[in-house]
Design a protein that fits this description.
By secondary structure, the protein is mostly helical. The chain contains eleven helices and four strands. The strands form two sheets. It has a two-stranded antiparallel sheet with strand order 1-2. A two-stranded antiparallel sheet has the order 3-4.
């Protein structure tokens, strides 16, 4: 049965495995040399001149539990997203979300210091891959929003980012350590949505982003809060999509007979079907591998029975 179990741990992409090794190296480095945390983690009061911490902090895990969770999520989600997007786009997404979460956490810490004059906001040590993990959930929401997650009471994938942020907020109240992980998760979620909504290139259409109503900012909030978010969403739509809407109205450099991916319900359904099909294929490959191993293990006994006859 060892070979059958191995089917569950195969198919991971080279890029995902490389990033997993990077996370493991960072953990080992800080475990052996704890002083390196000061040079790799984000400490807002020391980010100048240590500006590189805005990039390194997101890849630095300091507990074995968070390391295991981060590596597992990276490998599993990478196996789904990287073939769907391509390695270059997958890496670009991770880089953007990590930088966006770290940079905005720095700005938030400085702002809170000037408002409260509390030095602990400037010298809190922040690190972890959870900002990118939050971004992964946003990507899953985009690709397969109606896919049920069985081990979470059949919760639909479109609610995973919101539940992750809510869980982080509740945990911060209980642990009384909000700056250690909440900013990365909140800004990672928002940064991923911002990138996928407005910045991700769509070469087949000549536009960027996903303008579908199923991926609007309001869909991250319960129905009773959506009227409060609508005005904010309208502002961002005008800022980031003004040119796109103008081109659509004028018909310049764009085939009006070709629907914009993400702005058409049919395209949105296709995207969900592709995501669900990709997930089913991966689950099916694992099942076939286990069935093959079971059949192979039963083969000798069958041959032995034939010889006895």
């Amino acid at each position: 049965m060892a070979k059958g179990g191995a089917g569950l741990f195969t198919g991971f992409t080279r890029l995902s495995k490389g990033l997993a090794v990077l996370l493991a190296i960072g953990f080992l480095l800080t475990s052996i040399l704890p002083s390196t945390v000061e040079y790799l983690a984000l400490i807002p009061g020391r980010s100048i001149p240590f500006v590189w911490t805005v990039l390194t902090a997101g890849y630095l895990e300091r507990s074995i539990f968070s390391l295991i969770v981060s590596i597992a999520a990276l490998l599993i989600v990478g196996r789904l997203l990287e073939p769907f997007w391509g390695s270059k786009e997958f890496l670009k997404f991770i880089f953007f979300v990590n930088f966006f979460a770290s940079a905005n956490t720095f700005v938030l810490a400085v702002f809170l210091y000037y408002v409260s004059r509390r030095g602990d906001f400037l010298y809190v040590s922040v690190s972890g891959f959870h900002g990118v993990l939050a971004g992964f959930l946003v990507a899953v929401k985009q690709i397969m929003p109606d896919q049920e997650v069985p081990f979470l009471l059949k919760l639909r994938a479109k609610w995973l980012p919101s539940m992750f942020v809510l869980s982080a907020l509740i945990a911060s109240i209980i642990l009384n350590e909000p700056m250690h992980f909440v900013p990365f998760i909140v800004f990672g979620t928002y940064g991923a949505w911002l990138y996928l909504r407005y910045l991700q290139r769509k070469p087949e259409a000549g536009f960027k982003g996903d303008a579908s109503s199923e991926f609007a900012l309001t869909t991250f909030f319960p129905g009773f809060l959506q009227p409060l978010v609508d005005p904010v969403f309208a502002i961002f739509e005008k800022i980031f999509c003004g040119r796109r809407n103008q081109v659509l109205e004028e018909g310049q450099d764009f085939d009006l007979g070709k629907p914009l991916p993400g702005s058409d319900p049919v395209e949105a359904n296709r995207r969900r079907e592709r995501g669900a099909r990709a997930l089913e294929e991966r689950l099916g490959s694992v099942t076939k591998a286990e069935t093959k191993v079971v059949s192979t293990e039963n083969l000798p006994s069958s041959l032995e029975n034939e010889d006895m006859v």
